[in-house]
UniProtKB/TrEMBL annotation:
It comes from the Bacteria. This is DUF2510 domain-containing protein. It comes from Microbacterium ulmi.
């Protein structure tokens, strides 16, 4: 009886092959970077750490969608309804996101909510390294009290960003399908080069 547990095992210098507990499979992936625990012991996204598997991640919220690349949950943050997303590459957690699910009565309310989230994130992560409006080149620039309508037209995006040694955080308000969308994306800086290499190899495999 074979006692080797199922999992990914080295297959050369840069690759791993999956052992299903009974034999080698035809599943292969580039070897991911080793991720050491954060110096302060804090998780990277909610209670999860970058590099966790789908089975490692525990979320106490209503499941909306689940597969090996994306898990979506419904929850609330700061009295706002949000969709929480966990994104995986080759079975490893590399990004997480929040998208505000509430629909506000006017476009300008989204601008106000963007400011509230900027304040909330700055309490945990300090001043943003980026916090500015991004206008389309041909757009007519309008005063701040009209920014909500400008976002809805697709003329303007609002963006703020924070960085740490392990994580990049981007808060974004933009138009998606003629609706304002406010969301936060947290992504692993440790896995950034590996993700790019994985996707490059996947694209080459399609040629």
């Amino acid at each position: 009886m074979n006692s080797i547990p199922a999992g990914w095992y080295p297959d050369g210098a840069e690759w791993e092959t999956f052992w299903d507990g009974r034999g080698w499979t035809d599943r292969h992936r580039m070897r991911p970077p080793a991720v050491a625990p954060a110096d302060d012991g804090r998780p990277d996204f909610r209670s999860a750490r970058w590099g966790d598997s789908v089975d490692d991640v525990q979320e106490d919220a209503a499941l909306l969608h689940g597969d090996d690349r994306l898990m979506l949950y419904a929850s609330t943050i700061d009295s706002r309804r949000v969709t929480i997303g966990y994104e995986y590459v080759e079975g490893l957690l590399v990004a997480g996101r929040y998208v505000v699910a509430d629909r506000y009565p006017s476009p300008q309310h989204y601008v106000d909510a963007f400011g509230s989230f900027t304040t909330l994130l700055s309490k945990d992560h300090g001043d943003p390294v980026v916090d500015r409006p991004v206008w389309e080149p041909a757009a007519r620039r309008v005063p701040r009290d009209q920014w909500g309508a400008a976002v809805r037209r697709g003329d303007l995006r609002l963006m703020a960003a924070w960085t740490s040694p392990r994580t990049e955080i981007v808060l974004l308000l933009e138009d998606v399908g003629h609706e304002s969308r406010l969301g936060v994306v947290c992504s692993s800086r440790t896995h950034a080069d590996w993700i790019e290499a994985v996707r490059r190899n996947q694209a080459l495999a399609l040629l």
